[in-house]
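Homework-ish question, so no full write-ups if that breaks the rules, but can someone show me the predicted structure for this set?
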Amino acid sequence: MNVPVSITVNGVQHRRDVEPRLLLVHFLRDMLGLTGTNIGCDTSQCGACTVHLDGMSVKSCTVLAVQADGSSVTTIEGLAQNGKLHPMQHAFWENHGLQCGYCTPGMIMAAVKLVENNPNISEEEIRHGLEGNLCRCTGYENIVKSVKAGAGG
Amino acid sequence: MGYVGKSVKRVEDPRFIQGRGKYVANLQLPGMAYAAIKRSPYAHAEIISINTEKAQNLEGVVAVFTGRDLMEGTRLSGPCGTLPCGFVPPNTKVPTHHPLAVEKVNHVGDGVAVVVAESAYIAYDALDMIEVDYKPLPTVVDAKAATKEGASLVYADIPNNTSFFWTLGDKEATKKALAEADHVVELDLINQRLIPNAIEPRAAVAQWDKFTGEMTLWTTSQNPHIIRLLLSGFTLGVPENKLRVVSPDVGGGFGSKMFHYPEEVIVPWLARAVDRPVKWVASRSESYVTDAQGRDHVTNCKLALKSDGTFTGLWVSTWANMGAYLSTFAPLIPTALYITLFSGLYKIPAIWGETWGVITNTVPVDAYRGAGRPEASYQLERLVDLAARELNMDVVEIRRKNLIPENEFPYQTPVAMIYDSGNYQKLFDKVEELAGYQEMRKEQAKARQEGRLVGIGVSGCIEASAPGPSPVVTSLGSAIGLYESGIVRVHPTGQVSVFTGSHAHGQGHETTFAQVVADELGLPMEAIQIVHGDTDRIPFGTGTYGSRSAAIGASALVRCAEKIREKVTRIAAHQLEADFEDMVYDKDNGIIYVKGSPDKSKTFAEIAFTSYYAANLPAGMEPGMEATTYYDPSNFTFPNSAHIVQVEIDKHTGAVTIQRYIAVDDVGKTINPMIVDGQIVGGIVQGVGQALWEHGVYDANGQLLSGSLMNYALPRADHFPKMEIGRTETPSPHNPLGVKGAGEMGTIAATVTVANAVMDALEPLGIRHIDMPLTAEKIWQAIQSSQNGGAN
Amino acid sequence: MYPPKFEYYRANSVSEALALLTQHSGAKVLAGGHSLIPAMNIRLANPGVLIDIGRIDELKGIATANGSVRIGSITTHATIAASSVVPQALSEAAGMIGDPQVRNRGTIGGNISHADPGSDLPTVLTALNAKIQITGAAGNRTLAASDFFIDLLLTALQEGEIVTAIEVPAPGAGQGSAYAKLANPASRYAMVGAAVAVTIVDGTCTAAGVAVGGLTPCAKNAPSVEAALIGKALNADMLAAAAEAAQNDLGDDFLEDLYAGVEYRKSMAKVFVNRALSAAVQRAQRH
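A: Not a homework solution, just the prediction itself:
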């Protein structure tokens, strides 16, 4: 029994009929072809699937598409505006905040919300604030550096 | 141009930071179907029957196949072969490994059937409907115990579950050294099983053209050509010239994505069997019972010393858990990549290493970051620390006393390796200076007076990287030489495409290799395009692992560039009517000119075009501007390190806090310091993971208790202070770039440095050794025992 | 990573939710989904019907009245963590759940209805003697937290009932509370969690609520600790001694996992009660 949903993703409204069990991450990746959001685990731990839902960072593997009906979602593809990279994206590039890139979209999305309204965020706050995002490549050091730079303070 | 040695920003980053990485799981092909694999919940069981009828009848299911179907083949898809082991020492017994189990399953997670459906959701619904009747069999899990008389056998034709026995060194001399030693330090230790956990789970997509007979497989591999060779020669039977294997962007490997996996056979077989493209993506829980796991050694080791702390001998006996099947490189890890490093940074006159490779009912074990060298370093550096303690010497002092002196290189170790170059004294000088070691010990003494458990750990480690010279590796048992390929192709307009057999899954080759080629040809980096990962585009490559790509892959490109420069110079000389010997190739500006007459010059772009225009080339010269090299290294390289770590243990809970981490690594010359530091730090954090938290735990029935991220703790951002990274540089004499390889040194050193720090913190309590992971609970228990006068 | 099939209904009001629950017996309630969806993702949970209450306004929000703080059951952990009106043990514990993304979705009602022994809020609510407000087809009822949490993953919620609000005392002068947690390094669930609320008048403890969770099938009150505190003048030594008394309240049914066995957890219970106690006392003295 499919359910009609209307979800605005990166500023564009999408209407689809979905199975209630369809996860938001699969809606984004498979139905809309927005494959920037990655899946890294099945226990809601790794954070690779982090997107913004109504302005808050959430793990899209732990949200049903039907729960996002009527809501606004921003994915990594929606961060850059008018061809200009978001300062956090720049920061990750400048500071070698990624190696294989797989955790990166989720990491950047989480970081953007972490530093919002907190331009002078401390290194310790960053390290704690990224508890929900796992990286196996970088050892986190350059990620922390990137987030601090991307905070702009 | 001067790119090499500079921290150039990575050219591959724009796609990753914008969510446009080309990972296999992102691939969408018209008509694509989805596969899901039914896996055994038992570690050892006979398959009595498999009933797929309900699953087949589920709406949206395209087909269901069992191991027998793959083995026998269907009308549309021929029979599968068994997965081979690619590194077979003499007298190794190799279990038969079907891509899907046929008669019995041998580890939890062993696949028994596969569903193909219109969506992944339906495929998983169908999995639940497959009924498998198992008859459980006895299990063995522990490597040493599995070799004992009376232990149940995984395979009837592998007695004592022992697949191989490998030795190296001088047994008699080492026995003598132990017998005559003033002092012997002995340690029984476990180097625990690890689960790699690259953040991208494995995936495979296959597309079959039944008319041309061409198969394309996209797979998350570190070495697509090796997979193509094995598929073609052993498992799938598609001729190599009709098989294209593509490893696009891959989200981390650490070794776990080197091996030829069952799914790489199953997925293309399915594409033939259902005549549709097929996709399979592992779930994380699935990866825990299918990805090759790391380490898992049970070891007894003994270090012989004179009373003044001079090492005289080392004996190591290891029972290495191979798991239920021999994964592609598995026997190499506890043998030729392990025993050969037993000398460490030290002069040890007599060494004997013996390893039993043991089959158990667990997930197969193979290379994982460091692959044999972390195991070698761990036991040696623990023994050295214990020796220092027992002889009442400072842990740095005892190491310095035994370091191979700078003037003794090249140094022939008693375990085959010839160390090419090194300055280990300088390593220790630098790390002591960076750390302020003497001051650290003073502060520690103060803290101890306050009853605080502060520990300082030290290690000096070496590894053999960049496998390896083909005659050597093949004589050790490798089924393939380990050279690397490269093509530098100059286009008529002067742009350059570089095709490399190396594969980047985080290492930044698109940047570093472009730095190298740009410098070699005198071009801006923007003119260089690095292509990797597609067997249709690149020459036969052996892939990326063992920290080999800069040393071997980039060296191949240096040789290509040499050939290009020569041809360019010859054409320029001819067209400028000068002698070849009078030409100067200006690598800073990409100009070739006549010595003494700089106005008589040609640009690289001019020569590029003219080589294709071909109107006026030297007699006998072919048109075109392209060079191919297969670079076979003449030796391994030997990165080395000295690390110092300070920890504090919470007396009440046993929890460890890392207060400082100081690392000095010699990885030879660095192409891009930023990228090298990134590899070192990333490697260190993975090494710390083993020391403090990570453990793949099986119960006696072969059930993987640490079956997900819920109970297998990976390092997180809030576990670490800022790292203090230093470097010394002794170039490797064995490749034109002087690089040694930076990918694994951090991991190799970090595990034992942190372990030594924790044990140092506990030293006042008389605690001798605790096996890793050094969880808060284990440390707390040791503290309680020591306070209750318990033996340790 | 692919949940099994279910029917889905969205309720726009509490009465609608109750009607749907009555209509679909055995249906599970979906709020933030951060206990339920992870279980469905690995097919450990297979609810045939989900009733989504995540948008019901009357279940949201934090309001103070008459010395009590009323927290709507679908208030998120992030909201509670940021609140300055709830007792500090509660905001502190909410801020330790999972990670920022999880806290943006997980709700207090969902968390306590699921009653995972490793969760934090049941322990805090037990120490605070919170009141759990429940509604069902048969009407409304209120349970004390210690009556609400019964066993491993088991609460007093009957079929067709939902938690509508949680009421905790508004912190007053001389009152302080704290939560201390020994987190599993992998899941970061509580292997041991200790919650303490104290009232101090002129240096003497006049009231104390202490609870321990994580190591037992459900959160437990620690009356031995409370008894060791009430009526006593407080100092570091007697706090430590009071924390020791926790061992009498733990019962004999313990949970363990790969990172903490029973002996360790039992000892850590005392350590973390002591930590929560010291923090609560400090806060009470400042308030």
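Now go work out the reasoning yourself. Hint: Chain A has five helices and five strands.
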